Amino acid sequence: MPAQDPSQSSPVPAGAAAGLPPVAPRTLKDRVLGVTRRLGLTGRGGVILGPYAWLVLFFFIPFLIVLKISVAEPAVGIPPFTKLVEWVDGGLDLHIRFSGFQALFDDDLYLLAYLNSLKIAFVSTLCCLVIGYPMAYAIATAPEKRRGPLLMLIILPFWTSFLIRVYAWMSILKDEGLLNNLLMGLGLIHEPLKILYSDLAVYIGITYSYLPFMILPLYATLEKMDHTLLEAAADLGARPWKSFLTITLPLSLPGIVAGSLLVFIPAVGEFVIPSLLGGSDTLMIGRELWNLFFNSRDWPSASAVAIALLAFLVGPIMIFQHFQGRDQDKGAA
Amino acid sequence: MRKSRLPMVLLGVGLAFLYLPIVLLVVYSFNDNRSLTVWTGFSLRWYHELLADSQMLEAAWLSLRIAFATACGAVVLGTLAGLMLARFGAFRGRALFAGMISAPLVMPEVIMGLALLLLFVSAEQLVGWPAGRGVLTIILAHITFTMSFVAVVIQSRLVSMDVSLEEAAMDLGARPAKVFFVITLPIIAPAIVSGWLLAFTLSLDDLVITSFVSGPGSTTLPMIVFSSIRLGLKPEINALATIVVAVVATGIALAGFLEARRARIREREESQAGRV
Amino acid sequence: MKFEPWHDPAAKPYVQIEKVTKRFGDFTAVDNVSLSIYRGEFFSLLGGSGSGKTTLLRMLAGFEQPTEGRIFIDGVDMAGIPPYDRPVNMMFQSYALFPHMTVENNVAFGLRQDGVPKDEIRTRVAEMLELVKLTPFAKRKPHQLSGGQRQRVALARSLVKKPKLLLLDEPLGALDKRLREQTQFELVNIQEKLGVTFVVVTHDQEEAMTMSSRIAVMDHGHIAQVGTPTEIYEYPNSRFTAEFIGSVNVFEGNIVESEPDHSLIRSAEAGCDLYVTHAAHLAAGSHCWVAIRPEKVSITKERPADADTGRNVTRGVVREIAYLGDISIYQIDLPSGKRVRATAPNVTRRTELPITWDDEVWLCWRPFAGVVLTD
Ligand SMILES: Nc1ncnc2c1ncn2[C@@H]1O[C@H](COP(=O)(O)OP(=O)(O)O)[C@@H](O)[C@H]1O
Ligand SMILES: [Mg+2]
What we know:
The structure holds three protein chains of three kinds. Chain B is mainly α. Chain B has helices at residues 6-28, 45-52, 54-87, 94-106, 109-127, 135-160, 163-171, 176-205, 208-213, 221-229, 235-271. Chain B starts with 5 loop residues before the first helix and ends in a 5-residue tail after the last helix. The model of chain B has no long low-confidence stretch (mean pLDDT 89). By secondary structure, chain C is of the alpha+beta class. Chain C has eight helices and 20 strands. The two termini of chain C are 36 Å apart. The structure holds adenosine-5'-diphosphate and magnesium ion.
């Protein structure tokens, strides 16, 4: 095999040439790369710039604008608010006004809506947890071959339209709907229950729509768990319930937290479900924000509501990100 | 240890809870009656009505176009974002970036919608762009919230990928950009496809953000569906739901079939490994 | 002529590692390492898991930057030179074969990056596959190969660019024992045939002894000893190396006589004086240890002729015998309570046991057998 003889010099890759410093011959490409590198424009920097700039522009700045407009005055016109700073008679005129926030406190409608949103989101999250945990557990402990298809079944409804799934519940829960017909047919009730357009329907709708978001993170932690731990516990004499409570449950805590936040945070600001399934007296803050914006056209107040809602949610969002980040770091290690 | 059957039973009940409403929709889409409770006979009436509804069809076509553009944009940005989180180690402002990527996963849509609208309005006032609200603003908004989902999918795929594949390519003389396109991208291609489909679905389905940032003449399918069911039940929606379910089910079945076949071939190839 | 460039003061090292330290956060993975590796060497980095071998190798390849110190390859400072511009190739522990490419394309990958003409790529890939006996598998994908075949693809891929320096991270680690032994020799043959300098990471001391021209023993990030396999085995410079390579008996004692040509150590543990034919470089009275390999200890039932000298001879009771076929390993308890290992070839058939459990035996060794250690 003559070409393998190291003493024979066939064209050797750049940089591997004997004796030469390992610098590739300077082609035009190298020169361009060199210049951009000196300007601090490495490929890596360029890659970072794209998504970073996008998120700053379309995610970060919008929140600053919401903050700004929440202290502007409403006005008739397009857009329906005043400028914050204006030159009036050669002087700077500052129009800052907290009446948007003021209204939040004056009218206890908003306070009630906040509290009711928290209550509804909390109870629905609990329902998702109670229903979702056994489901996630069952999938995680199923034979490995069956886990994929079962998981698929959980995700599948998500690929069909959210709106349509809520709509399906409208037809089930209405006065002459399936549920009432069934209950009356069984003789359990004699008058149809008023479920549609009530808080109960909202609980059902949120639990139903958000259930997969609870199951997936739960499954992820339960599946990673070492099942020999349970066998070891059983071997050491723990009863199944006891080992569930002392081993499985604590170890799945990250999944419980992640799943609960994934349900709770968006549920607090939910708009579609309360407006389709809730009654006119079902107060939820997302719905009030929508009404302020689209019906009253009071953008400053809508912004104030958004800022106040965000202030509620900053804590939970930070906890959620902490858990997200922990997974990322674990992955990177 | 005896395994309790209880979780399996509860799983069955839970799945019934998840699927019952969808099954009902499908069944009643063939009902020859306005009522969604009494079965009076088989009919394709609602499908005819749906297909005759030009407003609905136009909105559907618009939604599909928006979803397509969104998915393409979100895949590019989301893949880069996933790459940054999984491969770039520490860079300046990483914590802020990670926060901005994961916040849209949970951020209530009314807040995102309002914030984006106010951005577009302010930008128009300041620089005159984007002029008015419409398809463009919807796409920009959709890319913003769907790219987070793509980034999560891509990132978790990259984390499970063996880094030494990329190192080996670099060791053999490939520069980072080349490594990305020739090694990383082909290997994570399935995750990119999933990310694309996810962004497409999310965009197609979005009502709240779209309502905020859309303008006259850019009414999407969810907006039409919402305004019609808000006033009560409409059987055409059942027909629409059935079509969506049929498309999704076909897609999933096809993907499942292809995956199973791939796995079978691979298994056979692996079993003959080592033999000439 | 013997290949010993490290004894030649005129020889220029091909790889020079100067006081290199690598820290991850406040954990020091590689600690002030200096090494010179010469052209054509088969150099092994040997150490337990987590001793920093891979980290050192990755700094040579350019995947990690030293926190302190410098690395020269062929006289060029490697600081800031990215992996794709280094005259070095690496074979990864996981092989890192590109799963979406055929064997052929995996091997051709490196040549393609350098814009080598298509025809030349084809011939060089073919030659390489021939060398590692994989020609019939050229069109297969990595998952269609056995473990041993994958290992050879990885080797071919890292050699095809004819690097002057090849880095191998546990190249045989994923193979089963039989295949590993067979592949050791193939690896050495290929290395000699191509004249490439190999730096190999391994945790298997037998493997390192079989293949290497020299070995660097690593412990907690620093180099414990560098030397030929013989030097490392026969003249360990510390208790760590002595105990890491093979098995050894270590006796604690005090220097009685310290002369340029011999040393005498009194050891209560051994129950006799230890006479060693090399300088201890220690003052009389100093505390030290003497290491003696088990195969250098003879075990007899009869009292040796020079037993009266009280030097390099002691007695004890046989507690354990492990019969390995070719040799037997005896564990003997001395009166001090110290347990000593001795190995003896089974020259006679085992049917008539010359020495058995609870026998009182004499142990003795030659003056050149022991090595004085200071730590
Ligand atoms: N990227 C890294 N970050 C933090 N610690 C690391 C990293 N790489 C290696 N280490 C640590 O450095 C030590 C040495 O690792 P390594 O060089 O892989 O050892 P070896 O190959 O000898 O088993 C280990 O304790 C390991 O945990
Ligand atoms: Mg290692």
